[in-house]
Design brief:
Blueprint: H1 8-42, H2 47-72, H3 77-97, H4 101-129, H5 135-164, H6 166-187, H7 199-204, H8 209-229, H9 232-240, H10 244-270, H11 274-295, H12 299-328, H13 332-360, H14 363-381
Helix pairs in contact: 1-2, 1-4, 1-5, 1-6, 2-4, 2-13, 3-4, 3-6, 4-13, 5-6, 5-10, 8-11, 8-12, 8-13, 8-14, 10-12, 11-12, 11-14, 13-14
């Protein structure tokens, strides 16, 4: 169906259902960050092992994001997106009822498939649903779902998890996903299959020098951030000595700062500051991470640093989305799959290496590793010439 022929009410309802699905996916994927300690204790695992639950979802998100375009090209896009939502639903039921760590990992793998598949198709789906002039607004609604989940999922999970237990938190997400599935069934129009995109076309983008450098920087940046983000709860519990209520407030502060970070990043992008932001934000978050190691023993210092950390953390994905439009605007669907794969692989590696360091050395070692990756990312980016910015051109994303 042509976007211009879709009734406005149904069009925005479909976008709304996608935004809610994104919120549920993000909440489900990163909820273990706020529940890491009780999950580990209940399943007789270490904190580092529990952190691998985030890593395994990243692995399957990588595989799915790379393979979904060729598969989705054979089927109605509506059915593919609904299948991703069903996968999320099944994974939540399995997580909530997991009797052992192995079943938890299987459930997280299914969730990773849903995350990778949905995100890889989201931009192309929006373009198919709405007129070109409204694409930016529609994408903004979807990213708002991301921001809402980032702001509220972790603190609510930490607070309620201490009252009703971590399993009840995941059971609580099940009816919300069911409602989302019903909404999608009613709102999503049929989107007939088109010619599939071969996997070779996705990887062919890496032959472009600026894309190869960009993806390297993406992986260094996100692996560095998630080597820290994944283990914030055990750090705050052991180093800062926070209670459950204090932990939820700190995570809420981090999440709410994300709204401001997203807005500030958008404003700076409008002023054509893309490449300076890509270069300097990783250094800022590395400095904040090291400051947290040094000053995080005091609650007041930890709170201030967490807010600042959340501010920068939320701005970085916005900048890389803008770079995607700048660097691969001629093949956004393939580029989107490649970007999702790179980010999810980075989440997996950051969480996995961080988990090993937490178990074998200390949490501080994981934070130091993350900071080193962020510094390397900034070095790879440099002034931006390697990422496609011509020395003689202004810093524009167009």
């Amino acid at each position: 169906m042509s976007p211009t022929l879709l009734p406005a009410k149904q069009m925005w309802s479909a976008i709304g259902s996608m935004a809610l699905c994104v919120a549920m996916l993000i909440a489900s994927e990163f909820m273990p960050v706020s529940l890491l300690t009780p999950i580990a204790a209940d399943l007789n695992a270490t904190d580092g092992m529990a952190g691998q639950a985030i890593s395994i979802s990243g692995l399957f998100a990588v595989l799915t994001s790379l393979l979904i375009a060729p598969i989705a090209g054979r089927y109605d896009r509506r059915h593919v997106l609904l299948a991703m939502t069903v996968l999320m639903l099944v994974s939540l039921v399995l997580i909530a009822s997991a009797a052992n760590f192995s079943l938890l990992m299987v459930a997280r793998a299914l969730l990773g498939m849903a995350v990778g598949g949905f995100w890889a198709l989201s931009t192309a789906t929006v373009i198919q649903l709405v007129p070109k002039a409204m694409v930016a607004r529609a994408l903004g609604m979807i990213y708002m779902g991301n921001a809402v989940a980032t702001a509220f999922a972790a603190p609510i999970g930490a607070y309620l998890g201490a009252i009703v237990g971590w399993r009840a938190i995941f059971w609580g997400l099940v009816p919300l996903v069911l409602l989302n599935l019903v909404w999608q069934l009613r709102a999503m129009p049929s989107m007939p299959p088109k010619a599939g995109i071969p996997v070779s076309r996705v990887f062919a983008l890496l032959k472009r020098r600026h894309v190869a450098f960009g993806m390297t920087a993406v992986m260094l940046t996100f692996s560095g951030m998630f080597a820290t983000f994944t283990y914030l709860r055990p750090f705050l519990e052991t180093r800062t000595g926070v209670s459950a209520s204090q932990l939820s407030l700190l995570l809420l502060g981090l999440g709410l700062a994300g709204f401001l970070g997203t807005k500030l990043a958008s404003k700076l992008l409008e002023k054509e500051k893309l490449f300076p932001m890509l270069r300097w934000l990783p250094l800022v978050i590395a400095a904040l991470t090291l400051s947290l190691v040094w000053l995080g023993g005091r609650l007041e210092s930890a709170a201030a640093l967490m807010i600042a950390w959340g501010l920068v953390f939320s701005a970085i994905p916005v900048c890389w989305s803008a770079w995607l439009a700048h660097a691969m605007g001629d093949d956004a669907e393939s580029g989107g799959g490649l970007m999702v794969a790179a980010i999810q692989l980075s989440i997996m590696l950051g969480g996995a290496v961080g988990g090993l360091l937490v178990d074998q050395i200390t949490i501080v070692a994981s934070f130091l590793f993350g900071s080193a990756m962020l510094v390397l990312a900034s070095m790879v980016i440099g002034p931006g010439f390697r990422l496609g910015r011509h020395p003689a051109q202004p810093e524009t994303i167009d």
